[in-house]
Write the structure tokens for this entry.
Amino acid sequence: MGELSFFAYLAVMAGVTYLVRMLPLVLVKRKIQNRFLLSFLYYIPYAVLSVMTIPAIFYATDYRLSAVIGCAVALVLSFLEQSLVKVAAAACAAAFLTEVVLRYLL
């Protein structure tokens, strides 16, 4: 990629990022009262984060089984309302241990 195209891509990215953040401030002058729209805007970050994270979980390991076990451990611990650090550490440990066992067995 040449230097000129890099700066062109950078300018487009900066412009899009600025527009996404600036347009709501310009177009919406008063507080939003619509319950559906408020609910929609409230859940958008969670939906986007889930859509970006969940597929990556299943392709992060060599064996799909270790990814499924790690995801299952994370889901169970999160439903038990454990802290984010505990959930992440336990999921990583479960996936790692499953990988070790599968490599030993196969």
Summary: The chain is about 80% helix and 0% strand. The chain has a mean pLDDT of 92. The two ends are 43 Å apart (CA to CA). Residues 58 and 67 are 5 Å apart (CA to CA).
